[in-house]
Amino acid sequence: MKSQNRRSFLRASTAITAAATGLTPTTAHAGPKNLLSPDRLGVLVDTTVCIGCRHCEWACKTAHDLDTPPLETYEDRTPFEKMRRPDDTALTVVNAFASPARPDLPTTVKVQCMHCDHPACVSACIVGAISKQKDGAVLWDTDTCIGCRYCMVACPFQIPAFEYGKALQPDIMKCDFCTDRRTEGKLPACVESCPVEALTFGPREELVRVAREKIRRAPERYVDHILGEHEVGGTSWMYLADRPFGELAFPKLSDRPAPGVSESIQHGIFAYFVPPVSLYALLGAVMWTSRQRAADEEEHS
Amino acid sequence: MSHSMRPQPLDRKFVTPGVLVLLLLAANGLVWLGGRFLFGLGAVTNLSNQYPWGIWIGIDVAAGVALAAGGFTTAALGHVMHRAQYHAVVRPALLTALLGYTMVAIGVSIDIGRYYYIWHPLIMWNGSSALFEVGICVMIYMTVLYIEFLPVVTERFIGRVNLPGALARLNTPLDRLLRLLDRTLDRTMFVFIIAGVVLSTLHQSSLGTLMVIAGQKMHPLWQTPILPLLFLLSAVAVGFPMVIFESLLAARSFGLKPEMPILGRLGRMVAPLLGIYLAFKLGDLFVRETFVYLKTVSVVSVMYVIEMLFGIVIPLRMFMTPAVQKSPGLLFTAATLVVGGVLLNRVNNFIVAYTPPYATHPYVPSVGEISVTVGFIAILVLLYRAAVIFFPVISLPDRSLTPASKYSVRG
Fold it and tell me: Any idea which of A63-72, A284-293, B47-56 has the lowest mean pLDDT?
């Protein structure tokens, strides 16, 4: 009788555990969905307009008090000879890609944090030091960060950089969407400095409309694709180009938010702490019954 | 027979030629570590914006946690399932887990850029972060491990408290305190033992979730939504081999008779556990059709095959052979293969598989990184040696009950 009870109890516990783990929220939304304001801002980068003057690089460094060479030195085009990435000394860089149609006129592409709508870095950060703001910016908080660099592992665009040379208080460095400048009523430094208006700053929804209109009016000028409209669930920065984005060194990404799978697993394992608590109860039952059995055996022997 | 075995402090000298070598390795590691604290991570490591995590995370932390799994698997077997015949291996496994997790905690602290903020996750929570879950679970589990080890400390000192000089007055109250602690722990230990097992299953699996968010930056041979399950299964599978590995190693090092009957029985349980892990690994390979990546010879495909063949298939076959369970040499070989296989799996997951989109060069650990990791392992072995000499951890034949000649000590 006793063993019968034990078995049925075990079965019940297992069923509870299985049910609880099975309750994986399939509709789990990645990122702080409630924070996504319809008025959130963004920037549209038209790579067919960009002339590769790199004034945005200069303006960005100046605005963020980074070591900035004089503006004249940016006329030098040798940096285009190799691919560069944003790092702790430059939060944005411009790369050049040879154009098959116009060998004399390479396509130049500005790179910086995309300010995802469902950022992997925000989901990953162990202490919640990175947050998606109402205005669209993805911001990093220096007072919270412990420097674990999990955001760098998580970012699908390989953007956050770390100050490896600092023994104390190394920072995570990435584009902050010029939040300080914008609170003063100014434009982001790169947008303001662009002499050809390759960068358009405004509400993201508006930018999507503008981009669609551009493609509709000049279908021969653009590929019919706004990079960032849907990639990884949408980004605040979006791009237009004259050729597939894979040829411009953009990673091929799905439309699903980058933290989606990870968060579903995480919330599944911890669904209201039911699975861990059930496991605890199950193990407690096993321990109790096996001790009883051992005691019984000792009695009988 | 198990009744005549009792954990006792080992009567051995601490310093041997081998210990001197370990001390040198430890010192070398600490010197490099000093460089990291003086000049930053970039000065000592080959970490970069492309490869933010290296062997300090892949080996010291990820593999460290996995190889400390002997602690919770033997606790589950010995205490939860109450198999008294395995009690002799529970304490050494507990000590290994305790030291292992302590090293993991130190390993994390030195790898993070702002080590002085290591306490932040305690009050700054992010429930969606797998790393947060791992961090919190490891912190709590480490506390549980220290609590589980307390009875060993009380056992060592009850009736033996003998403070020098003026402190001698405290002897009696301290002894009473130890006895009180011992009684309380005896009644409440089951709470901690079960908590230890639950916490282990949680963070062993979440350690797998860690790399899921890296998405396509991780090679498809390893990137799978069932990573947490694979990490948990491999941790469970490596628990007993790790106990066998260290028990035979300790027996050799201290000149003790290997506890073959217990280890052989543990070995018999490895095959099914390893078999389940292999089944899920192969299932994943075929369901996601990632076997196509094995058709070309590359670093990833070779590493994957080594991991599967030498880490799982060969030891699985060995553990299924009765002869292996009786021979210390073969048992040690099989256990070492499993331990190496899981170590390689963690390195593969965290380092080899990690191929960021804009990588210009592969990550190779620096001399400094290797020195620190080797130094930590040396310190771990030294602490283990010191602990088993000082505390009653390793079970020896109880001389008061059995004739000494029956369990003669080798060497």
Answer: A284-293
Residue A185 pLDDT level (bands cut at 50, 70, 90): very high
CATH topology of domain A33-122+131-258: Alpha-Beta Plaits (3.30.70)
Note the ipTM here.
Answer: 0.90
Confidence band of B365 (pLDDT split at 50, 70, 90): very high
Six token digits for residue B221: 């041979």
Helices (H), B211-366: 227-254, 260-287, 299-308, 314-319, 322-326, 328-347
Report DSSP letters for B378-399, one per residue.
Answer: HHHHHHHHHHHHHSS-SEEE-T
The pair of three-digit structure tokens given for residue A151, joined into one six-digit string = 């955001």
The rounded distance, in Å, linking the Cα atoms of A94 and A77 is: 11
Higher pLDDT, B400 or B272: B272
Residue B180 and residue B39 in one domain: yes
Please tell me whether residues B197 and B284 are part of one structural domain: no
Per-residue confidence (pLDDT) for residue B387, from 0 to 100: 96
Contacts of A146 in chain B (CB under 8 A): 112-114, 117-118, 120-121
Assess A109–B contact: CB distance below 8 Å, yes or no. Answer: no
- Integer Cα distance of B356 and B305 in angstroms: 22
What are the residue ranges spanned by the domains of chain A?
2-28+263-294, 33-122+131-258
Two structure tokens written together for B274 = 């390893």
Q: Do A291 and B82 touch (CB under 8 A)?
A: yes
CB contact under 8 A, A266 and B128: yes
Would you say residue B248 lies in a domain?
no
